[in-house]
Every structure is written in C-alpha cells, then in structure tokens.
C-alpha cells in the first residue's frame, strides 16, 4: 500500500514541474515557473500530508494562499494534468476553468489543452468557456441556446476544422 | 477510445430527445448564461454514475425536465446515454485480455481476425459501447450497457476497462471548483493520491 | 429590535425587485426578471430565516441552487445593491464580480454600475475587472503592473473622460 | 464624500511609498494576473480596519512587503492611508450636528459661515480627512486620523460618521465571493439584516 502510494506520488512529482513550466512559459518568461510536490512522511505517506508549491515566473517562494486568483488557477490546472498523466482517463470535462485568467493566460491554456488533446495518444478535451480567445482554438463547438417558446435548451454543432486555424 | 456523442431525454433543461455530437478531440461548449452548458456536463457526469447532489439537484427527480414546479408532477422519465467509440487499438486491448490463453503467435493472429469478424457481424461492425442511465417516474435509477440492464458494479467495472475511474473523478472539474484544487490542504492531497494509487 | 429589523427588511424588500429588473432587462426582455424576499417569521424575525428568490427573464420559479453560475451572480449583485440602498456607504469596492458573466451580462452590469455611481447622490464605485467591455465604461482606470526589476507592483492612472464615451 | 486617493508604504506587493489616485466616481482597476489588483483592495480593506485573515495573510507581518521569505526578516514598517474628501454638503452634515443647540436661522447661517472660516483656517482649507493604519516592525497595528493616533473605537466612530460601517462590510466584495452571496442560507440572510438594522 505504501509502495503503491509512493509509485503514484513519484510519477506525478516528476511531471508537475514540466507541466507547470509548459503552462507558464511565454515570450516574457521562456523558462516558465517552477512547481513541486513534497511528502511530509516518506515511509508512512498516509500519516503525513502532500505539500504543493508553485512559483510563478520571476517570483520567489510564497505560501499558496498568497498567490493571486489567476496564479492559483494555473497552478491547479498543472496539478490536475500532472495527476492525470498517472491515471489517464480517455477524456476531460472542464467547466469555465478560465474564469479568473487574463487574456494572455487564456491563450496559453488554450494552446496547452489543444496540444494535450490532438495528436497520437492525446486525451479528448471537452471544455465549457465564455471566452472567444479560448474556444477559437477548438476543433469543434457545441453551441447551446435557450429556446424561449419551448422553454428548454437546444444545441447546434460546428466543425471548426473546415476553417483555417486562427493563428 | 473517445466520447462520440451524448443522447439526452428529458434531462434538466433538455426537453424530449436530443442527440449532441459528434465530439472531436478538442470540443468547446459555448453559449449565454443560463442556456444549459453546465447541464450538459451534468448529463455526462450523471451517465458516469456521479450522485445527484453533485449535479445541483437534491433528488434524482430534480434532474428530470420540468417546465415549472407544477410540471414536475408530470412524472416524465429521463435518461442519458454516452456513446463511446473504441480506437482500433482499444479493440486490441480488449481482445488481448481474452487471447492470453490461446496458442502460438500465428494462431493468435488468425484467431484474432476471426474473432473480430464474428464480433463485427454480431454487433454490426460495432466498435462502440453505449452506456446509459435512466430515471424512472418513481425516482429509481437504472444502468445499462448496450441496452442490457446491469448492476452498478458491472457498469463501473466496464468503465474502468476504458480508464474511466468515476471514484477518483480527476477528469471532471465542475464550475467554480478549479481554485479550490490549488488550495487543498496537505491532508486532502494525501487522500487524492490514495484514491489514485 | 424586531421593529428595526422589519424596517430594514421592508426597505430592502421594496428595492430588490426593481434592482433585479434593472440588472436583467435588455432588448430581448424589456421587463427583466423578478426577485423577492420573504420572512419566515414576521413577528419574531430573528427566529426565522429570510428567503431570497430570483427568476431570470422568461424563466419560472426554481430553487436558487438550480440557477446557473451567471444567473446567481446577477441575483447576488441585485441583493447587494438593494441592501446598500438601506445603509448607503460612500463607496463600493468589487473584485472581479463579472468573472462568471457572458458578454451581454457584463455590458448590462457595467451600465448599471455606471448609472449608480455618476450623477447626484451616487455611490462611488471602484471595480477590479479583466474584461475590456466592462472597464471601457469607467471614468478612470488604475492600471497595475508588475515591475520585474524591482519585484513589486507599480501603478498608472488614466482619465477616460477625456476621450469620447464608447457607445 | 468620496475616496480621493490611497497612500501605500511597503504594503504587500507595493514596495516603498506609492500614491494611487485620484479615484473618480467610477474607477476600474485593471492589469494582468498576479500584478497586484487584489492587493490594492486589501489595502483599502486594511485601512478600514478589516482583519488580516480576510486579506490572505495569517499575521499582520505577512502584509508587509517582502522580496522573499528571507527578506521578511528585514522588519520594514508598513502603512496605508486613505484620503477621504468631503462634499460641500458633507461639511453641512458634520456641522449640522454641532449647530443644533444654536439660536435662530439667521444666527445659524452666520455662525455656520464663521465656523467654516475658522475651521478652514485651522486646517488650511481642509475638506479632507486622512485615515491611516500602520504595522510596526513588532507586528503591532496603529490607527491615526489626520496623523493623530486614536483608539480603534474612535477610528470606527469617525468612519461611521461618513456612512462607512466596517462591521457590516456590505460594500466590499472580495475575489470569488460574489456567488456565495446568492447561495446564503435563510439563517445567514437573517444575520445580515440584523447587522444592518
Ligand atoms: N429539471 C430542470 N428542468 C428544466 N430546467 C432546468 C432544470 N434544472 C435546471 N434547469 C434550468 O437550467 C438553467 C441553468 O443551466 P446551466 O447551469 O446549464 O447554465 P449555463 O449555461 O451553465 O450558464 P452559466 O454560463 O451562467 O454558467 C437554470 O436556469 C435552470 O432553470
Ligand atoms: N507581503 C508581500 N510582499 C511581496 N509580494 C506579495 C506580498 N503578499 C503578496 N504578494 C504577491 O502579490 C501577488 C498577488 O497579487 P494579487 O492577488 O493582488 O494579484 P491580482 O492582480 O489580483 O491577480 P488576479 O487577476 O490573478 O486576481 C502574489 O504573486 C504574491 O506573490
Ligand atoms: Mg455554467
Ligand atoms: Mg485578484
């Protein structure tokens, strides 16, 4: 039991700093930020906790609670994707996870999700978003609207791959 | 494999029968506030076995389409089906498990082909699996795989075969939950890792 | 004590439906939605609760928990502004309250806040937002940025009243 | 009246002395994630007497600018001042309270004018009030009105005169709190009304 736990932990621990770097790198900070996981009690992991720390690009170490709303969202996404790499489910469903992100972080996140879902062995992503600079990078859109007369929801599907990809 | 389409019947704000899809590798769900986007995610979560409390309903009956409070006495049935398409190599994985006991490689290859043909004929070139969950007018919930009623354990077992672990739920992030993930206490994170391993 | 409570309650109760209507009316629904407050125990208000119900335009009565994220945000704003009218403080500070709102609700909210702050007897509003279709309706902007070299925050102020108002 | 400007010194991510303003009737604070927008709201809340736990800091020292964990041993002082400008009719209100005991209207008018002149001379045509709160290097916090140290009760009393009730806090909405307002339980709402009345 302890060994299995350490196995899962070590796998995710390796992936978290790479995932966080990928999500935070940009023209201003080519190397991105740093994130890591530490075990309080290595031998008996169930008795201790798991500490998660994220340092946005060019910032020093601080408690997670001192980070801003957007910085916490990016850190949480990195953790989720790193955990997912250990036990990959065939698809993801994310509901407005970009709500606290500014324009540049929305772009970074959209490119990241796109890179994780397309290509061989990718994980299918289904993402609800209100921001056009997020969903214009998807392969297809499911447009939901309220039908006033029928007092219910209706859906239309659009295949975006027919149009040239936006830069 | 991947999620190909969702079929709804009287689920939350989706009245009557509606088929939603196809879902591609990267699909975004868009629309104005209150249109029914999160209800679609609730439908996907519901068919995977998530409890109604997590789907903003106190009872299963709350998840059935109702025009207003009066209307909910109509006692409509509701159901959601998730059609999951296997990759060709998924098939391999499924069959791998069955073939372990067979003879040498040559035989194995032939027998795999035959098996696939037989299977193909049986299910009409079927490389999809249909997971369904219903709500009856008495409020009971039923699970079906390819239209055959099964127990929840069998259902969860089949989902697990495709890597869908509903217990860990690390692949569903509900509206407003994302920031809470980063602020999980060390104890919570230990629990998450425990479920994972 | 009971009388003072009822006084406060009755004042807010009158304002809530008007405030909610103002926040939800638009070209599609000129009369907006309905909201109301009810007391569980009129004589001994402290013993009972206060129920708040909001019905978005063209929708029927439903439990508050069944509303969507954006619908709940609009209802909450209406309640806050209605409560504020009873005990008006000289200013408001709101931090990214528009995060869950779609484009049309952001516009409605921005116009509402602008109407409540400008003009005689208005309440000063200081609102943090990431959305340009919100802040382009403000009178002035405080732009915050991170100074990399100094590792701290810096601020610039812009007076928008010099430019023609956006439609 | 209204909030005219904020003066920060070593508060959270704001290093050294910085003056922010003027704030107009409708001002929006904008900037990228992590730049320091919410820290500015924390500064306004801090100077009005809100506790540090609500400002994402476990102790008052956490609210003092520090480059990194090592740096926080530097023992800098920190302070925030809020400059509040009175409307001309605010002055009326303040004086109204003092004048109640005086003679007939005519006298009243004259005496008001005289009073205002006197007051104007005293404070250099001052129609602003300066609220300040400091954090010393030992972690204690001080309250000042127009640079004179006062007790927290006197401070809160003066704020109340301008309609700023820090206890009720219905005019401050922190990041992420808005949706929780609509979901308040009936009991919570009763409590809110109780604080209000
Ligand atoms: N059983 C039901 N029958 C009919 N309508 C329902 C039912 N349950 C919920 N609804 C309606 O669904 C709406 C909410 O939909 P949903 O939460 O999916 O919106 P959304 O598109 O996610 O919006 P947002 O962008 O604001 O998050 C509510 O207005 C509610 O009235
Ligand atoms: N005492 C301190 N000294 C120096 N920096 C600090 C201090 N306390 C907090 N910070 C920094 O302030 C940053 C957070 O700022 P803030 O929460 O104001 O961002 P924001 O502009 O609101 O961002 P968002 O749009 O993501 O909400 C953190 O990155 C943190 O490192
Ligand atoms: Mg939603
Ligand atoms: Mg913030």
TrEMBL record, chains A, C:
Compartment annotation: Chromosome; Nucleus
Similarity-based family: Belongs to the SMC family. SMC1 subfamily.
Protein's UniProt name: Structural maintenance of chromosomes protein
Organism of origin: Bathycoccus prasinos
Organism lineage string: Eukaryota, Viridiplantae, Chlorophyta, Mamiellophyceae, Mamiellales
Shown residues in whole-protein numbering: 1158 to 1324 of 1324
């Amino acid at each position: 039991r302890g060994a299995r736990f350490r196995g899962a932990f070590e796998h995710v621990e390796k992936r978290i700093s790479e995932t966080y770097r990928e999500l935070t790198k940009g023209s201003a900070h080519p190397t991105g930020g740093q994130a890591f996981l530490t075990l309080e009690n290595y031998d008996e992991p169930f008795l201790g906790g798991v500490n998660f720390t994220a340092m946005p690009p060019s910032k020093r170490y601080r408690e997670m609670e001192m980070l801003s709303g957007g910085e916490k969202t990016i850190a949480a996404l990195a953790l989720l994707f790193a955990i997912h790499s250990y036990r990959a489910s065939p698809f993801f469903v994310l509901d407005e996870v970009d709500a606290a992100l500014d324009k540049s972080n929305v772009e970074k996140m959209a490119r990241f999700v796109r890179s994780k879902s397309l290509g061989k062995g990718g994980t299918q992503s289904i993402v609800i978003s209100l921001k056009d600079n997020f969903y214009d990078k998807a392969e297809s859109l499911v447009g939901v609207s309220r039908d006033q007369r029928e007092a219910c929801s209706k859906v239309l599907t659009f295949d975006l791959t027919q149009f040239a990809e936006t830069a | 494999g991947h999620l190909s389409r969702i079929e709804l019947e009287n689920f939350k704000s989706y009245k009557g029968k509606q088929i939603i899809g196809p879902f591609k590798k990267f699909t975004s769900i868009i629309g104005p506030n209150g249109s029914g986007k999160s209800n679609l995610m609730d439908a996907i979560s519901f068919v995977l076995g998530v409890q109604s409390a997590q789907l903003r309903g106190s009872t299963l009956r709350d998840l059935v389409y109702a025009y207003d409070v009066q209307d909910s006495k109509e006692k409509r049935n509701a159901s959601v089906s998730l059609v999951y398409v296997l990759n060709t190599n998924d098939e391999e994985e499924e069959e791998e498990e069955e073939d372990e006991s067979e003879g040498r490689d040559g035989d194995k290859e032939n027998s795999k082909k035959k098996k696939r043909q037989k299977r193909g004929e049986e299910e009409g070139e079927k490389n999809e699996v249909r997971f369904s969950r219903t709500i009856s007018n008495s409020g009971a919930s039923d699970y079906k795989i390819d239209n055959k009623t099964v127990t929840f354990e069998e259902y969860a077992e089949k989902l697990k075969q495709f890597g869908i672990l509903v217990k860990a739920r690390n692949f569903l992030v509900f509206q407003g939950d994302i920031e809470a993930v980063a602020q999980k206490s060390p104890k919570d994170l230990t629990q998450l890792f425990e479920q994972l391993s």
